[in-house]
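RECORD TYPE: protein structure
NAME: N-acetylmuramoyl-L-alanine amidase
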Amino acid sequence: MEPLDKFYDTIVVHHSGNEVDYPTVKQVQDKHMDSKSDSRADIGYHYAIDKDGKIYEGRDIKFKGSHVNKANTGKIGIVLLADLSTDDAGMGWRSTFEWSNGELTNKLERSLLKLCKFLDDLYGIEILAGHMEINTDRYCPGNLTMAKINNWRKLLKMKKP
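PREDICTED:
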């Protein structure tokens, strides 16, 4: 097996979406495992971060994630456990309703940056991406995250995909 520091070069940031403001890791894992159209063996993300900045380990880093459609190789998935789309873009017919309205809290943001720095130190990460920059099939990680991602890339000295 190839060493992990030769395997991972990208971090992909996600948000949990428009269904629940602040879901638990267990709720996201259950959704991934129980969905008939998209059942997985485990949560698709390697890490999750809640609004209070608590970091959770998801899928073991030894295993390829399942978080970007047909493009998981070399990518570490981090899900922010919040609805970070205040404009509800990408919701189709539901866009006329405000389903939920999460917040990109300071604690969540600080933990994300610390985790990205830690992963960069371990694996030599080159790229920081929002999900929609890899796959255009989903409006993820929301407009609040995308408004900050270029600044995060500068702080972490990472590139855009």
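COMMENT: Strands lie at 10-15, 47-49, 55-57, 75-80, 127-130.
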